[in-house]
Write a structure and sequence with these properties.
- This protein is an all-alpha fold and 513 residues long.
- It folds into 2 domains: 364 residues, no CATH class; 90 residues, Serine Threonine Protein Phosphatase 5, Tetratricopeptide repeat, CATH 1.25.40.
- Helix content is 68%, strand content 0%.
- It has 23 helices and no strands.
- Helix 22 runs antiparallel to helix 23.
- The longest helix is centred in the middle third of the chain and has 28 residues.
- The chain is globular.
């Protein structure tokens, strides 16, 4: 493979890396077509009245993604895609999953094209194939609500690809970049980062050369359009789904960092970075829940993830400085993209709705793999290709086994409990499965186990009460409500006082018959 000068961009002459990456993604992820609604899919896709009723579609644009959630997400384009699909084909989960698979294939192809552009054909092959098979993407593909990740990533990476494409920045291309920005903004909150990515890509495109008059004018118009669009987005968001929501309203079990203070709050982002780094490099232990006591809110000196995160942060800083001094703009762009995209999900400055999730690495992993591909492409292909193929095969096998698990909700929730024995959410999801099928005895056994591992939490008590009501054991339900009133935090006690009233009415109604 020939050498490339610093700052020189490749062309798109060979699209085979993109096509093969897309086909690999489709072939590997096709197993998810047998899946169903998992976790948040139920609330967002299956039961949201705004999605199911065309007369209520307008509310998807004027209300948050989750209406009652504390973190006030706003993803109207994703919800509209579910609404339109439901209108066209109804309750057919496999079609929803097919769209997710195709989106992932599109992102894989885009990553490959970016690799070709930034590092040459070999870099395109490496980045595209590894992105298509990486196990950390399973949650974003197999979970329907993961569409927010792939749709936003496709729009942002597509916009960057348009920006870095050969030829001058025409008015049509600038308009295409702006459209990508709008799609990203309306798909997921991290779309606000796209102007930053484009700024980071300026040295890559021009590599110290002077920006010509035609390009300069188009870039000025594009910059104004992006700024005005971002301002309008913030104003609208503040009206319908405020960005300045109260972090104290977060459930500590979903994001335990609300309980962190002092050094714990300062060091926990390094712990999270260490965990994410391990998932990117060695993605074996994947899970749908990391809340509660799994990661917790305290930092312990013996935690290996702390030191792994510190080393990862130090390596990133050193690599960025080296790339800056050597004018290696393509690699610096990948590093900045990785830092920006991770920074918004890493709970570094402000808390987000969850402490940790596999799906949050969907976009950051693209920049990580692009950087790795650029480095590897500088070595002889005969040395790199076997290692990349072995890594891709191992990653593909892990992806396939985990995707199959997503097709079996019970097995998925049970694995979550095995990985994290104190996962209240794992028990709650497993309980919901049996509760929906009115298998109350099994549901009650799961609820009691959840109460043992999460004492003082309101959810397990409520699960017990609902199960006992299903079994018409009113005395046990009333006793659990009394116990909950004495054990749960004050803000949840009124919930169980209302449960006692409901139990009394149900018992009176049954005796009346």
């Amino acid at each position: 493979m020939g050498t490339r000068k610093r700052g020189h961009l490749g062309t798109f002459g060979d699209i085979r890396p993109a096509l093969v990456s897309a086909l690999v993604a489709v072939g590997l992820c096709a197993v998810t077509l047998r899946g169903t609604y998992i976790y948040d899919d139920v609330e967002i896709v299956r039961t949201d009245v705004r999605v199911l009723d065309p007369a209520k579609w307008g509310r998807l644009w004027t209300q948050p993604y989750f209406v009652d959630a504390a973190d006030r997400l706003y993803r109207p384009l994703v919800s509209m895609s579910f609404a339109v699909e439901n209108y066209l084909h109804g309750d057919r989960p496999w079609v929803f999953h097919l769209v997710n698979v195709l989106l992932h294939a599109g992102v894989s192809a885009t990553v490959a094209l970016l690799g070709v552009r930034l590092g040459g054909r070999m870099a395109g092959w490496i980045a595209g194939i590894l992105f298509a098979v990486h196990p950390v993407h399973v949650e974003a593909v197999a979970g329907l609500v993961g569409r927010a990740e792939s749709a936003c990533a496709l729009a942002m990476l597509g916009g960057i690809l348009l920006f870095l494409g050969p030829g001058r920045i025409s008015a049509r291309r600038a308009a295409g970049i702006w459209v990508c920005f709008v799609v990203a903004l309306l798909s997921k909150e991290q779309g606000i980062l796209m102007p930053g990515f484009l700024l980071a890509a300026l040295p890559v495109r021009y590599a110290g050369l002077r920006i010509e008059g035609a390009d300069r004018k188009a870039l000025q118009y594009l910059g104004v359009a992006l700024c005005w669009t971002l301002a309008a987005y913030f104003l609208w968001r503040e009206r319908v789904a405020s960005l300045s929501w109260d972090r104290n309203q977060l459930d500590w079990y979903i994001n335990p960092m609300v309980l962190s203070a002092g050094w714990d709050r300062a060091l926990l982002p390094f712990v999270l970075l260490g965990r994410y780094t391990l998932l990117l490099v060695f993605p074996m232990h994947l899970s749908i829940d990391y809340g509660g006591w799994t990661i917790g809110w305290q930092v312990w000196p013996r935690d290996p993830y702390l030191y792994m995160g510190i080393v990862a942060a130090g390596a990133w800083c050193c690599a960025a400085v080296i790339c800056w001094r050597k004018c290696n703009w393509a690699m610096l762009f990948c590093l900045l993209g990785l830092g920006l995209s991770y920074g918004i999900v890493g709970n570094i400055v402000a808390l987000i709705g969850t402490i940790f999730a596999d799906r949050l690495m969907y976009l950051p992993s693209a920049f990580f793999l692009l950087a790795a591909a650029i480095v590897l492409s500088r070595f002889p292909g005969r040395l790199v290709a076997p290692g990349v193929l072995i890594a891709a095969a191992l990653a593909g096998m892990r992806t396939y086994t985990y995707e199959r698990l997503w097709n079996d909700p019970v097995a998925l929730f049970q694995q979550t409990i095995r990985l994290h024995p104190r996962s209240e959410r794992g028990y709650a999801l497993l309980w919901t499965f049996y509760q929906e099928r009115q298998q109350w005895a099994t549901a009650l056994a799961i609820a009691k186990k959840a109460r043992e591992i999460a004492p003082g939490r309101w959810k397990p008590y409520e699960m017990c009460i609902q199960s006992e009501l299903g079994l018409e054991d009113f005395a046990a339900a009333d006793a659990d409500a009394d116990e909950a009133i004495g054990h749960v935090p004050r803000q949840q006690r009124m919930r169980f006082i209302q449960w006692k009233d409901f139990i009394a009415k149900r018992r009176a109604k049954l005796l009346g018959h």
